[in-house]
Here is the input.
Amino acid sequence: MTTRLSGTTSLRPIRFGFLVRPSDKKSVSRIMRWSTCLWGGRCNPIIPVGRYPAHWRSSEPFLRKPDREVARDYMRFFEPDIIVEAEPGLAESIGFDAVSNSSLESQLISLDELHSKKWTGHRMDLYVGQSVVDIYQADYEARHQFVLREDVPALLFKEDRLAPLVEAIFGAFPRDEDADYFKKFYENAYSPKLAAAGPDTWLSVFEGKAKPPFYPTFLDLEIEPKTRREATFFIFDHTKTSDLIDYWNTRLFETPVFPVPLCWLDELKGFVSKAINSNHRPIPNNSFGTMFTSQVVFARSVKEEVAKAVVEVFSSDCPDGSFFIGRSTHPKHTDDWHGPRCARHSVKSDEARLSLEVEGGSVSFPMPYPKFAERFGGGRYRWANVVNLSAHGPSDMALCYPSNIEDRTFPHLAMGQQGPIVSREGWVLLEHYHESSGYLRIDSGTDAICRWLKKKGIEAKPSSAGRIASQMVEKLASLRAADLIADKDTIQILNKMAMQERTSNSKSTSNTKTFEGRTADTGRWHELIKKRAKNTLRFRVSLEQFTSRGILKLGLGLNCPHCTHSNWYGLDGVDYIVTCERCLKEFSYPQGSKEPRWKYRVTGPFSVPNFAEGAYAVTLTLATFAKSLSPVGDIGMTMTTGLNLKCDAFEREIDFAFWYRKERMLDQKGEPHFVVGEAKSFAEEAIEKGDLEALQVVAKELPGTVLVVSVLKEKFSEKEKRLLEKLVRWGWVSVEGRMRAPVIMLTGVELFADWTVEKSWQQKGAPYPADADRSVFSDLELFALETQRIHLGIDYYDELRKRRRT
Here is the structure.
């Protein structure tokens, strides 16, 4: 069967992450100047590494982190493609030295290497990144070649004591040796007016009456903000390097941001007040009369008394509630629980939709490129394509991976290319010439997770039970048809057929017992399907679906006249003369008798006894996460069934594992959770101490792993609850600001859910919540806490409050 994938590939500039010490004024200046020479250069973050100034540290004790961890937060938030160090060792100091792997040398470079002499040709060029020189040429040819003067003039700024303001706000060219050609090309293309930095020039730029040097870096870019604010006015001291870094980065997650230097405040306060008043208007179609508001953000170096004085100046001309006041913050992505969170802007230039066939375990596709760029440039990588692929419904293909920003040696999926870089944005491929094609290997979920565990020092191989469950998942179209078995009675009859249960032969005086031969009368199945049709709201089952999936096979039942064994013959095995399966004697088919009966026989993994060695519970648990938590199909999930795990610390078996990510609409994706679990059937004491110890040792080796314990029965026994509570409380312990191991508990209530887990809870009644918050079903940690409250009657937040009181 051909497997098809759909998705997109989006063109954008390479995202550089410039690592620099907050006190290194000279390097910050160079970074800002080189950003004026890069396509999308002002979309690149400046990541402070090293000792932070005191005013950058949070006044809230619970938000305080070591400077190194804050720098790592910057990296996780911005997810740079290329890391540029202002001095050697900065990446290593924050744990990103793996990016310096020799096979990845171009993804970690020094600031001096950015403009390299390695490349020979008709002129110098950037070692990495798309140069603005191509933009100048294309822009000139498209707009200026036959026009003596542009309506909106370009500017070029004088070099003076206000150079830091020019670099941060307007753009300036590098002072580096052999880099003066950028300025010359700019002058030739735009004939700019020489200007001095000042309030008047600021007004002309932000009122759209002049274009500064950074303007061409945005050619053909669409920048989509993820925050919904009308305006942000960033007030800072340009003599403080930390303030310049704060302003530079704030632009990348707030919009629009107007920089207001304290030295120009008196001249610009009229513009600010007018803009705040203009923004303060009713939100359309809002019945509550809510108004748009602006925000005034102060850099953290600005003293409190200065900030109060500035607010008084604005307040005198602005109505109450027209703006609110804040302080600049270190950015943290939305997966971080602690403190304010934000989302960086989406940047792209072009996008192509993909519809692909997986052939030989791989896909290929054309990728967009910037039309203004020369076909072959000097740099090794000039732009990026971000690929997002999805299957139609649940799939056994590995399309969801954890980010590899720190160590890019896994996964290696780009055939003949380096990468991809896996981020919350997608799979990032770095390109350097026109009309190139992308080639990606598509692994199975089992292969992907086993390779990832090997990188973590854990050998993983499919277990015997895991192979059975894998076959079941495959038969059910990678969980898309899991609803067929999401019924207690259906599983019970399938298991009874698989067990070959002995039944009494009431017609025999000797009371002999015979094997049923893994069969059941068709009438019994028709009754079951009729019953399910009355009780279900979503999935209409039919016997045709069971036979087409290879679960059941139709045939005829016939007793042997020699040994009375109950035989079953498939439609291709019926003849005038048939052979008994037991005694191997032939006998004539009874053509005139009523004895032959139509029967179904269970086949494949469904014919394995003992509830298919737990495969039903595993399959339905995976289906619950893939479908029933979020029925609209916005889940990213890469899964595997049972594995045998072995490392120096332990040797254990787990029933399933998967990466799970709730996709976000119009947003970067979240970081996927790694989930492992144990799945049991209907036994009264199904969960044993050893099962939970297996999960615990995995979580010790991989902190943050989500643990799942599921059973097909509706309730855990009291003994099981005591064991589970110990595991839950162990998992509550904080490691690096997060729970060590959130524990999710599922029963038949969730696994047999007719529509969604939420609906099933509502129908079941107490202790299940009737109105659980929607966030419970989109965040695995919150979902874990809710299942703990339901099944164990313990509440994580109540426990925290008790600890604080004591």
Observations:
- DSSP finds 23 helices and 35 strands in the chain.
